[in-house]
Design a protein that fits this description.
heterodimer; A: 315 residues; mainly alpha; 1% strand; B: 7 strands
């Protein structure tokens, strides 16, 4: 089944939708976690309030930081949001003018991470360096596995273009899955907490130096700069979830160019993201954070699943 | 200007540059200036030659006979698409090196005597000239002469910079390894010339057509090992991380960015042209060996790079990695060439990826070596643990180094990403053609390539962060100032190339048309990869039933710029005032440079994760004041070993030592015994080879 092509304006609309929903996903995860821990918790809109507060604040900058430090939040946000433009949200099918595929999406996310790590070293504190070092270690174990999961679905569809991959998946539900799909999805479930910086790999709620990875890199950012970095984190999370849903779940009505089709597609996307967000919240509430050097073993499960999935596709 | 005339001009420029070393009799600085100017002119002429051939009529080969130096061989030049493309790669980097060189040599070693400067000017011009003419060689003898000239001139440059024992040892190792490789090449060439009765490539090609399969394969593997030694593929790479850093930085840029590519040129020339069978695919063992060697080089190269703290040594190990990535593309093209169906198209994609990565690596590795050179010229320190805080002191160098770091880490929107994307697409297409174990090897290669990208990003976050960011760790870094303008211009030229090849790669595909079409005798690169116009890269795998994977680097780059502008507005926030400056939080202590994360610490998690490969050694010496709880001083020493060195080379070394001991036991010191040995050897040789002639 080949889908219609999307106009550039539609792609931008999807990107805006994705970015504006990013903080909400974080809010839902936080709220769910709070309820699972028998707390009331802040409202689901709290991440938006945090962002607005940060953008209205002034900036404090480390005295050792170079000019690059001020550019880092800008570039990180731009790269992450650009990755958001490559995720099919409401409709499958390739854009009318090609933009990027799954590899470019992963590349843009890697660019954002690289710049974050570089920015963390700029302030010259040990926390930033520690966070950057650990984040890069986890990242380089996650990225190849992520790439292999993408390949395992791409081999079946013959392309790495996400819109076409999603269209290839069709509207059939899990019944059409083969063993390779289950294994690939299992690998993705292992990777998700790592890629979104959550327990058992990272802990987004703490600034305790022994447990943090991503938060350690953000320590020296403040005010609007921190706001940009946080918005980038929210966007990165929803982009990753969007990648998983594009790879493994059928999209909404593919041919829905009218308002009803748009709403149906958006509704289907929201449901999928919600399910994955709830999964993250449950994992975070039911596991303890792993010791850093246990993380490679944990990610090894994902590697084995992804490799087996690929092998099953090829053999 | 006519292309042939440019070729003569190029020769004249490099020749004049070499002769200008004589000017050092009067003034070393004058010799440096004139010599580098001649290199620049030669490189510009080289660009003219290559563009003339690449953009000229398809299939046109420029041939030119040379002086008759030897009675038994007719020397000639022949520039076809492949030659012209590699000439372009060489010339592009040589332009940057020639602009950068004089200021670097003056800043880095201001007290160098005229003799040393003369040697450097002479060797540089011979080096670049030999590389340029090696790619244009039309016969075996000029190929080997240029090959040897290139090796000798680069050896002179390696030992010329800092005249200490370590450089001399690095140079010696380089000489031994390089000549080991040359011997293998000579065997191949002599075998072919013996059969052909002539030296020119056309005759060799015709002679190779009559070979049987096993001889052909043996010859290919001899040539492959010979070239792989020069290219620095694992495990033949041990000389590379020693020799490349020892040379002056612009020569390091040439050695790493270009000289290794000359070996790739040789592999392509032999694999697809001279030794290729008349029809039908290449023997499968060729391509798979190249592919596996490439994968191993890519992963091990970057893993060892990650643990280096010497800036230039780190970059040299990254060359091993990138040669591996190029070899993956070459190997895949060899496997797929002349296969039925989609294989032909896919081979074009793979070869395009390899050739594109060749010029990409030349651009960013050249840029990074020049950037490292600026740092070294200003601080005289190569160990990044003694640097830091240079971004505030050398903003241009830092910015350009960061550009190179992003490019080499295969991150969009720069050029490294484009060629790796093409490699990935070729591998992915390969999984559609191969099933069973062959498919698994390809998939595993793809996974390793992905791992390589992640490792490179980690490595350059470390290299850039520790060298340029944070606080200066020593007074060397504290007192550094920006490099002279000419050095920055040299770097900026390569930086612009990285951006252009990344943002608009479609336009570069036109240059790849001639080499891909000639080697593969199929469609050119742009017909396959830019079938939808120059702004879109697509894999063009219509034969596989899919043509859907298409990306537009230009559009994504434009999107990035727009989004960055919007984010900049957001970043400025509501309060527009200047940011308040405060010291970094260090838990209430006075911040000093000791709080900065070091390179050793940054790489530690990976040292533990990959401990099986690194076999790290760690030594901590505490000096306590009476009780173990009061530590006066603490000394830390650690190192990782290169597995190839300990597992292969040290064993070979021990074996040779053993052998010589055994032989010494037979050495009686009496002349009769020795004459007896010689006679015996002669007798055996006559028995084996002297029959029937």
């Amino acid at each position: 089944m080949m889908a219609d092509e999307k106009s550039l304006g539609f792609v931008v609309l999807e990107m805006i939708l994705l970015v504006s929903l990013g903080p909400l996903v974080t809010g839902i995860i936080q709220k769910t976690k709070a309820r699972l821990q028998s707390r009331q918790g802040a409202g689901v809109l709290q991440p938006y309030r945090d962002l607005i507060k940060l953008f209205r604040k002034g900036t404090v900058q480390a005295d050792t930081a170079s000019g690059l430090f001020r550019m880092v939040p800008v570039l990180v946000l731009a790269a992450t949001v650009a990755a958001g433009a490559l995720v099919p949200v409401v409709r499958a099918g390739p854009p009318a003018f090609p933009m990027g595929d799954a590899l470019l999406l992963l590349g843009l996310l890697a660019l954002a991470r690289f710049l974050t790590a570089v920015g963390a070293l700029d302030a010259g504190g040990a926390f930033g360096g520690m966070g950057a070092s650990r984040e890069m270690m986890v990242a380089l174990l996650v990225e190849p596995v992520m790439m292999m999961v993408v390949f395992s679905t791409a081999v079946a569809a013959g392309t790495t273009e996400l819109g076409v991959l999603a269209a290839h998946r069709g509207t059939s539900w899990i019944l059409a899955w083969r063993a390779a799909d289950f294994l690939g999805f299992a690998a993705m479930l292992v990777l998700l907490p790592a890629e979104t910086g959550r327990i058992p790999v990272d802990n987004p709620d703490t600034h305790l130096e022994l447990t943090m990875l991503h938060e350690g890199m953000l320590l020296e950012h403040s005010g609007p700069g921190l706001g940009c970095m946080l918005l980038a984190s929210h966007t990165r999370q929803i982009v990753t979830l969007g990648l998983v849903s594009a790879l493994f779940f059928p999209l909404g009505p593919v041919d829905g160019a009218d308002v009803t089709g748009f709403l149906l597609g958006a509704g289907a996307f929201a449901t999928k993201i919600l399910v994955l967000a709830l999964y993250l919240a449950f994992v975070e509430s039911s596991y303890a954070k792993l010791r850093l050097f246990r993380v490679p073993q944990y990610l090894g499960i994902g590697f084995v699943c992804a490799l087996t999935a690929l092998a099953l596709r090829i053999l | 200007m006519e292309v042939g005339a440019s070729l003569n001009l190029m020769a004249a420029c490099y020749g004049a540059g070499a002769i200008s070393a004589l000017l050092a009799r009067w003034s070393g600085r004058l010799a440096l200036a004139v010599g580098h100017l001649a290199t620049l002119a030669g490189a510009v002429a080289g660009v003219a030659v290559s563009l003339g051939v690449l953009l000229g009529a398809p299939g046109h080969t420029l041939s030119q006979p040379l002086l008759v130096l030897f009675p038994f061989a007719r020397l000639s030049l022949s520039v076809d698409g492949l030659s012209a493309y590699f000439l372009l790669v060489i010339s592009v980097v040589a332009i940057a090196a020639a602009i950068y060189g004089p200021a670097y040599l003056r800043t880095h070693s201001p007290d160098a005597g005229p003799a040393r400067q003369a040697a450097q000017v002479l060797a540089l011009n011979v080096f670049v000239g030999c590389m340029a003419f090696l790619c244009c060689a039309g016969d075996a003898l000029s190929f080997l002469l240029c090959w040897e000239g290139m090796t000798l001139a680069s050896y002179v440059l390696v030992v010329s910079d800092d005249q200490d024992g370590e450089n001399a040892r690095a140079g010696l190792l380089y000489m031994v390894m390089a000549h080991g490789g040359t011997v293998l090449l000579m065997v191949v060439f002599l075998f072919l010339t013996d059969r052909a009765g002539a030296f020119d490539f056309a005759a060799l090609r015709a002679a190779a057509h009559g070979l049987d399969g096993s001889t052909r394969t043996t010859l290919f593997f001899l040539a492959f090992v010979g070239f792989a030694t020069k290219a620095g593929a694992v495990p033949l790479h041990v000389w590379l991380p020693r020799a490349h850093p020892a040379a002056p930085s612009h020569v390091s840029a040439l050695m790493s960015g270009v000289m290794l590519k000359v070996a790739i040129y040789g592999m392509l020339r032999f694999g697809f042209d001279l030794l290729a069978p008349v029809a039908g695919p290449l023997p499968p063992s060729w391509g798979w060996t190249v592919l596996v060697a490439g994968t191993i080089s890519a992963v091990l190269g970057v893993l060892y790079a990650l643990q280096q703290h010497d800036l230039k040594r780190l970059l040299a190990f990254h060359s091993v990695e990138n040669i591996g990535i190029i070899l993956i593309g070459v190997g895949l093209a060899m496997i797929l060439w002349r296969r039925e169906g989609a294989g032909g198209v896919l081979a074009t994609v793979a070869l395009t990826a390899a050739l594109l990565h060749t010029i990409n690596h030349a651009a960013f590795k050249g840029l990074l070596f020049l950037g490292a050179g600026s740092v070294i010229a200003r601080t005289h320190v190569r160990n990044m643990e003694e640097l830091g805080g240079l971004a505030r002191r050398m903003p241009w160098t830092a910015g350009l180094f960061l550009l190179g770091a992003v490019a080499i880490s295969a991150l969009p929107p720069l050029n490294g990403f484009v060629s790796e994307w093409l490699t990935f697409q070729a591998l992915l297409g390969g999984t559609g053609l191969f099933h069973g174990p062959a498919g698994l090897v390809i998939v595993f290669t793809a996974a390793m390539l992905a791992l390589t990208g992640g490792l490179a990003a980690a490595c350059f976050a470390k290299a850039f962060g520790v060298t340029f960011l944070g606080r200066p760790r020593t007074s060397h870094a504290e007192d550094a100032t920006e490099a002279p303008p000419s050095m920055i211009v040299g770097m900026a030229w390569l930086g612009a190339l990285c951006v252009a090849l990344g943002v608009a790669p479609g336009y570069a595909m036109r240059l790849l048309d001639a080499p891909t079409a000639e080697l593969l005798q199929g469609p050119g690169a742009s017909a396959v990869v830019t079938a939808h116009g120059p702004l879109v890269l697509s894999t063009g795998l219509t034969a596989l039933g899919t043509d859907a994977t298409a990306i537009s680097m230009t559009l994504v780059a434009a999107l990035l710029i727009v989004l960055a502008a919007l984010a900049w507005i957001l970043r400025r926030g509501v309060r527009h005032g200047a940011p308040r400056v405060a010291p970094t939080w260090t838990c209430g202590m006075t911040p000093t440079s000791r709080f900065d994360y070091t390179a050793t610490a940054f790489a530690k998690p990976l040292r533990l994760v990959f401990a099986a490969l690194y076999r790290p050694r760690r030594e901590v010496i505490r000096e306590t004041a009476g009780t173990p709880y009061v530590v006066r001083r603490i000394r830390y020493a650690g190192e990782v070993v290169d597995l190839a060195e300990t597992q292969i080379y040290h064993r070979v070394q021990r074996g040779i030592t053993e052998l010589s001991r055994t032989i010494r036991a037979r050495s009686t010191g009496r002349i009769h015994g020795y004459i007896g040995f010689v006679l015996g050897a002669l007798f055996v040789a006559l028995l084996l080879f002297g029959v029937g002639r």
